[in-house]
């Protein structure tokens, strides 16, 4: 007999120019949420300034969605993944919160064995079938992991992939990073406070439509700018929260 879900979930879906993917992803999120959450759970859909008609597609989908507990956050202009994550996490009210990309490259079925997350646990998925990454993206990912380890002591296999947080712990944090490095900030702070990272292998599904934006020059540039800021932020956090 499968484990009974006794915790509520918030699933944050990030969307930037995913008009061709978002319907399929939203349907899958609703189906999986019905399995892993003790109630209907909630979906927080963040549209980060899409220019491909995603807004109209999403509004149409909301009218016919099975799960009516959907919060729609629309950024009129693209603010970047960091700001989008802030917007999504701030809206979360479930016991567990997870961000999934709106491109459909994360297999949501991987959440099902982990319906009930223990206290002080980060469920951190890492990609093992990352064949769609270009050489430059693989180098960038390795560089990011090395920086995290050297400067803030964060040893996760794939800090930029899907992670599940205990929402109460996440809401207690004051997040200061606005780029994609915000995930490094979250993980490093929670681990310093005694949270354990449970790392789980994850598939990296091929895109069915659209183009990846994860390694755009704007994202890389902002992350580079934020590296020294992240170091300062984490060191200040450690001094304030000596264990």
From TrEMBL:
- Cross-referenced InterPro entries: Glyco_trans_2-like, Glycosyltransferase_2, Nucleotide-diphossugar_trans
Q: Which domain of life is it from?
A: Bacteria
Q: What's this protein's name?
A: Glycosyltransferase 2-like domain-containing protein
Against Gene3D superfamilies, the record matches this protein to:
Spore Coat Polysaccharide Biosynthesis Protein SpsA, Chain A
Q: What is the lineage of its organism?
A: Bacteria, Pseudomonadati, Bacteroidota, Saprospiria, Saprospirales
Ranges of residues in domain Glycosyltransferase 2-like: 10-111
* Matching SUPFAM superfamilies: Nucleotide-diphospho-sugar transferases
Where does this protein come from, organism-wise?
Answer: uncultured Aureispira sp
The record, for Pfam families, names:
Glycos_transf_2 (PF00535)
């Amino acid at each position: 007999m499968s484990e009974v879900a006794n915790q509520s979930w918030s699933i944050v879906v990030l969307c930037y120019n995913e008009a061709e993917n978002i319907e399929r992803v939203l349907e899958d999120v609703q189906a999986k949420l019905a399995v892993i959450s003790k109630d209907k759970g909630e979906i927080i859909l963040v549209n980060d300034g899409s220019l491909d008609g995603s807004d109209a597609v999403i509004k149409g989908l909301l009218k016919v969605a099975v799960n009516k507990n959907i919060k729609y956050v629309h950024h009129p202009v693209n603010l970047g993944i960091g700001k989008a994550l802030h917007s999504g996490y701030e809206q979360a009210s479930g016991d567990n919160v997870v961000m999934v990309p709106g491109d459909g490259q994360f297999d949501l079925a991987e959440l099902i064995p982990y319906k009930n997350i223990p206290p002080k646990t980060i469920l951190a998925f890492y990609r093992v079938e990352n064949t769609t990454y270009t050489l430059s993206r693989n180098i960038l990912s390795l560089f990011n992991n090395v920086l995290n380890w050297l400067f803030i002591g964060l040893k996760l296999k794939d800090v930029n992939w899907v992670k599940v947080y205990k929402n109460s712990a996440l809401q207690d944090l004051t997040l200061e990073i606005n780029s994609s490095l915000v995930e490094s900030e979250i993980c490093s702070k929670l681990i310093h406070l005694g949270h354990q990272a449970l790392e789980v292998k994850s598939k990296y599904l091929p895109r069915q439509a659209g183009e990846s934006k994860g390694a755009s020059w704007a994202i890389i540039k902002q992350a580079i700018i934020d590296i020294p800021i992240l170091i300062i932020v984490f060191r200040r956090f450690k001094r304030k929260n000596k264990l």
